[in-house]
Amino acid sequence: MSTKQLDVQIMGQSYILGCPVDGEERLLAAVSKVDEAMCKIRDAGKIKARDRIAVLAALNLAFDLPESSSGLAKTTTAVSNIPEDSQLRLTQLLKRLDQVLEQDGQLI
After folding, report:
1. Residues 78-101: pLDDT tens digits?
2. Element containing residue 76 per DSSP (H, E)
3. CB 95 within 8 A of CB 37
4. Is there a contact between 28 and 6 (Cβ–Cβ < 8 Å)?
5. Could you say which of 11, 15, 72, 81 has the lowest number of CB atoms within 10 Å?
6. Contact 10, 31 (CB under 8 A)
7. How far apart are CA 65 and CA 61, in angstroms?
8. Integer Cα distance of 29 and 42 in angstroms
9. Res 86: pLDDT
């Protein structure tokens, strides 16, 4: 499969990304989502470091992914093949992460 290169901007910085010729639309949609997520975190003003903004944006997008894929309404429905105790641990971990980020706005 042949690939092409696209010049995109995420949070004001240019990136050259490779993608399959028939994947340009999907890649541009993904870039748009990542840019929007990162700018939203940056604009909230609590976090300044680009790498931390990127990690938080990635976590937010990954967490929201099961809800948006296949029209599923709830994350727990989308991950029903994951044991219930693992789902509980994941929920607790995300709550703890939210609490820590609310306290000081930093991941580390």
Report:
1. 444 556 766 677 777 766 766 666
2. helix 75-78
3. no
4. yes
5. 81
6. yes
7. 6
8. 20
9. 67
